[in-house]
Amino acid sequence: MSYQKVLEQIHQNLQLAYRKAIDLDNQLDGLKQEGKGKFSQIFKEDMGFVTKSNRFKPYVLELVEEFDSLKQTPNLAESDITDIVARLGVILQMQQAFKQQVK
Fold it and tell me: For residue 55, what are the contacts with CB-CB under 8 A and spacing of at least 6?
């Protein structure tokens, strides 16, 4: 079965998450200069990320790297995509929540 449309949608959402990550990381830099935002990582260790960062961009780059590897997989199955989609959803939700908090 071809997952081309799904892969295209994931790619678009990764691009969106990356653009948001750049903007939000800049906001985090500003908060840090104000003496706020004193945390060591955005996501808890049980969220499925290898990355441990207090910025969004490294988490998005982790998924981009995994996604690029996944696209090279012959006979791609739904289970191969599920984990990336779930973590991408977590990133996008956290980005939106952070954006609302900072307003």
Answer: 21, 25, 28, 42
